[in-house]
Design the sequence.
């Protein structure tokens, strides 16, 4: 049976990808962030998954305002890298895992999560930057297949944090019931606190971020109990992306250990973090 | 029971379905810039491009004048507005300065100092 071996929470700020693409990771501005990633990258390189399920949001690229699915899943053989308005990132095409996608879809719908199905999907920085955080130099192809799982975080009403945690729990169950012996990693992306527009543009709330970074491991229910208004007020209009971390957290289950985390301000207009958790339950059954 | 309403948070745009409705043409046009041919067509004749996407006079004026705050006030989504900013070679830090009445340098410095804090 398939198992979730680890979960990675990471910001997906486009400039983090641009810093890698343009070889600026040793610049004074970016070096502290990338130095913070190093222990997690080294550990992940020793614990490679067959498939990564990447929970993210599209940013006006594959999904436009004509139709805005609250939750969606990609079921394609491959996903092209989007031109977001300044040319596509020069990274490999993203290979899908359609059999796993179809299995997850069936299981989630049976459990009451009525996912939108994407048979064609261009993936933007929300998905490719976290892949680069995991694997900075993929060469000609990424080291694992990918199942994209999309969440509407840009148009109110977004799903509640509680619903995201519940989706994660159903996702974990769905992964564990897949009959092939494959290793799966789950990525929760976005955050941390940031607000791009309005008079509060440039907002950073380190106290809230630090609380969230701790509670995502020890007390995700407390984070699921926060309202959308709480997230926007405390973490900014785009900080609500952090609800996507709860999907990753729900999929991991209760027996986890923290491998590494790092927190840095700023990555352009954003507080950026990474947190990596090992599924201890999967380790003992392997 | 009344329908749930979008929260109000001071100094913050919370883009919602009502904004989507009133700014649909504006955001649709801005979203079209993901296609390089559309970027070229817009640059060749901005006003005609706005007309082709049926922008109303307020929306068109905000675009032609690059009135970034007004684009947001009219219901523009920052992820759509940003595509025009990039065509103008503006960064999210440039926009941050404009939204907060700072120079780009001041805005970048505020972020480097740990960001802006509220309440």
Sequence:
């Amino acid at each position: 049976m398939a198992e979730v071996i680890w979960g990675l929470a990471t910001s997906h700020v486009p400039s983090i990808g641009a810093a890698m693409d343009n070889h600026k990771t040793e610049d004074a501005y970016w070096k502290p962030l990338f130095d913070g990633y190093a222990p997690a990258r080294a550990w992940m390189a020793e614990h490679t998954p067959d498939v990564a399920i990447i929970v993210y949001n599209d940013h006006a690229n594959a999904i436009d305002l004509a139709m805005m699915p609250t939750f969606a899943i990609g079921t394609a053989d491959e996903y092209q890298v989007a031109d977001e308005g300044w040319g596509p990132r020069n990274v490999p095409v993203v290979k899908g895992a359609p059999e796993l996608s179809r299995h997850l879809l069936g299981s989630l719908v049976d459990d009451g999560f009525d996912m939108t199905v994407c048979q064609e999907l261009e993936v933007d920085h929300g998905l490719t930057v976290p892949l680069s955080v995991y694997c900075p130099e993929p060469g000609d192809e990424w080291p694992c297949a990918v199942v994209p799982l999309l969440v509407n975080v840009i148009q109110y009403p977004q799903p509640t944090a509680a619903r995201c945690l519940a989706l994660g729990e159903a996702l974990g169950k769905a992964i564990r019931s897949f009959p092939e012996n494959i290793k799966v990693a789950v990525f929760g992306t976005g955050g941390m606190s940031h607000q791009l527009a309005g008079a509060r543009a440039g907002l950073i709330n380190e106290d809230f971020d630090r609380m969230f970074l701790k509670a995502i491991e020890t007390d995700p229910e407390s984070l699921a109990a926060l309202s959308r208004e709480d997230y926007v007020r405390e973490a900014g209009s785009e900080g609500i992306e952090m609800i996507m971390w709860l999907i990753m957290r729900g999929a991991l289950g209760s027996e986890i250990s923290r491998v590494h985390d790092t927190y840095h301000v700023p990555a352009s207009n954003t507080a950026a973090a990474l947190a990596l958790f090992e599924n201890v339950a999967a380790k003992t059954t392997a | 029971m009344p329908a749930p309403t979008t929260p109000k948070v001071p100094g913050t745009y919370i883009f919602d379905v009502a904004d989507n409705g009133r700014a649909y043409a504006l955001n649709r046009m801005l979203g079209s810039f993901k296609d390089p041919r559309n970027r070229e067509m817009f640059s060749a004749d901005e006003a005609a491009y706005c007309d082709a996407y049926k922008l109303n006079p307020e929306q068109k004026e905000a675009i032609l004048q690059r009135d970034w705050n007004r684009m947001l006030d009219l219901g523009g989504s920052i992820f759509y507005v940003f595509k025009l900013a990039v065509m103008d070679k503006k960064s999210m830090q440039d926009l941050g300065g404009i939204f907060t009445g700072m120079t780009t340098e001041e805005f970048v410095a505020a972020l480097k100092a740990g960001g802006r804090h509220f309440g």
